[in-house]
Write a structure and sequence with these properties.
Shape: globular
Helix content: 55-70%
Largest sheet: 3 strands, parallel
Radius of gyration: 13 Å
Mean pLDDT: 80
Distance between the termini: 12 Å
Order of helices and strands: EHHEHHEH
Low-confidence stretches: none
Structural class: mainly alpha
Amino acid sequence: MGYDTNIVTAIIKKNQGLINKLKFVNFQVKALFISSITYYEIKRGLLYVNATIQLSDFNNFCSQRWSILLLDNLEIIQKSLRN
């Protein structure tokens, strides 16, 4: 299951309702991921505002929970358009 920039931002801001839903989803699916585009948007934004604590939280969360989906195949993008 993939997450977009708005969802990841809410998680970084410690939106407890969303974090609880994420924990629930984590038990139901085998893989959680964010796209390389979402990774870039979040990381670039945090670097831009020099949000060192949130950047550290984001890096830790990515290394422990999410895989980064590299969009190097047009089929991936085409499939996302059908969902």
